[in-house]
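Q: What would this chain look like folded?
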Amino acid sequence: MKFFDKDIDAAIFDMDGTMFDTERLRFKMLKQSSLELFGQEMSDELLFDSLGVSAVTGEKLAKDVYGEEFSYKEIRAHADDLERQYVREHGVPVKEGLYNLLERLKKNQVLIALATSSRHEIAMEYVIRAKVLRYFDILVCGDEVEKGKPNPEIFQKAAAELCCDPEKCLIIEDSTNGLKAAIGAGGIPIYIKDIKDVDEDVLPGVYRSYTRMIDFRDDLVPFTKQLSSPDIFETFPQNTDYEVAGIHGFGAIGGGYLAQIFSHGDGYTRPHKLIGATRNPMIIQLVNSLGKYRVKYESIAYFQNIENIEVIDIMDDDQVIDMYEQSHIIGLSLPEKVIPSQSMVIAKALMNRYRKQKDKLTILVVMNKINASRYVKKHVEKALATIVEKEEAKAIIESAYFVETVVNRMVSATPEENIAGNIKNDIDILYHNVTEYYDDLHNMLEVFNQSDKVPKPRSKKAKIGVEQAKVVSVSSSINVAAQFIKDIDEINVTLFSAEPDMPLYASDISPDLVRFRQIVVMKDIKSMQEIKNKLSNGTHAIIAWYSWLLGYDTIGQGMGDLAVEKVAKKIMKQEIRTALIAENPELKSYIDSFISNFIKRCRVSFKDKCTRVGRDPLRKLQNGERVIGAISLVQKHGKEAPTLEFGVACAILYSLKSVNVKDSEAARIRELYEENNDIGDVLTYSGPYNKSTYKGLDAEKDADLIARIKKQFLLLQEKFSDIE
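A: My prediction, written as structure tokens:
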């Protein structure tokens, strides 16, 4: 592997202070041990002076400060015990970025060694508890060499055991003595700063210096394989790293798509936690209780578990702000109409991040709207203007990337009644199993309880025989217990149904995005937005409106009717396609592939409700938006769009007939129509809309178009006159 101008065969890691944040922990334990055994804490100055020196030198420094009666060896041994106890209870404090770094090196055929001054026993316990032992080909410890650092022996030995030339070995260190040893061994020294700066005279011999492990990782990324988009059946990475991913809007796209993208991560590691924000109390309780949920891929009958997930209340500003502060990336997937009300909490969260000097945040804006990132950014800027001064507001906005995206996946939420029913079934089964397993579990406990009351045999052989008899007698019960635990673990909840399309297209403005396997970075994202908006968004809505009028409940049912399928194909293949290719000839293959996949997906979308897809019809009929925008595009290229015009008529009739009380826009269309019983009033409406101004058609300029849509509407009205 190449790393800048160096050929790399191996990487040799120091342990304390480099891989693990144990120096700070050791300081704490040495202070506690000294207080307990000597009655006085060791000073910070002494602890700093003792970093990276031998035990003999450390003892001399301590006795120079506290006198000969200071029992350094005893204090240090007790501190070792305290440290190991802490690690056993709380885990090893791992440096951020270590897991991803080790995964990248391993999967790019780089040999890995550990070379630590710690004893073998301690080193083994730490790497096992940190779950990194599997990465290391060899371990060389302080009690396995004659001379400690700064002598190069330990690194020379590690390179020799790997059968590698030291000149092709990265040696990652945090201390002066460690770097001197790396330089002396002829390796490629990488300095990662810990709590103490190294001596200035050692820096000229260092190949690269970093403030943090993750900075080294980021430099390594371009030299390691960029993993391609995962297959739908591919499992998420086994290891988690330090990162947190937030999902602001844990709805269909947030929970059924973004969660998968973040879980696949870069293919090397995944975030150690996902945080989703929703206002649905049932989802909050269920996911937090189970710690997981499922996404069903209907067309391939496949379930995927999303784990390491916490869901918070989107109405709790403190929780949302905390999510933004913890997260390294945010996926924002909210309805357009709630952005104004959510902009203040986003503004406060970004303000807190900026004042705490956190890294620049990437916000993936995943909304069915062209220039959605600009729309969100504008509202956040407006909110910031009310809470901070102008200069700080500008700096805060610049501390985040607002990223445009294009989504091709269709996702729908599982109806709440289905979720409740499935959970009830799982609990019923578990209850049945509890009663079935009770006798076996009770028997297993009784065997051990009764045997404890029987006098113990004196001979060792007899004791072993008794213990073996216990295990044999309860072996069947143990099997039942294991099955019971498995039954509990299998309780899960399917929250979303999705199609298996993997890529999310995003604008090329954030350096973080290239690491995500499912994100395709595009320089010209606007063209793709236009294609999707014109091709699928309008067509999808028309399918929903027409299917509902025909009496179908879902998109999949509607597309099973040849009349609906014919309308969809005419719109996409005969009307919109030609105009789009004329404007984007370089994207012809993408357009054709998109149309083909879209038709297939719609045909199997049996969980996608027509009322969900057809919601907000007024927005979709706005001048320049979706349907009307597609008609304008076709007319621009001298063609007619009778099927799209038919779709507009469907939208208005759907709104007049619909009983969906949640669709306020359908109600608004009814109000506009009922003033004069004229659809022209709907099509030409210009006025207040979601705190902005709605732009309808021009009554004079668009008179011919309005007349043609009226004609289509009257025919539809007569055809569906039986719908109340």
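The chain has four domains: 2-220, 244-410, 427-492, 526-719.
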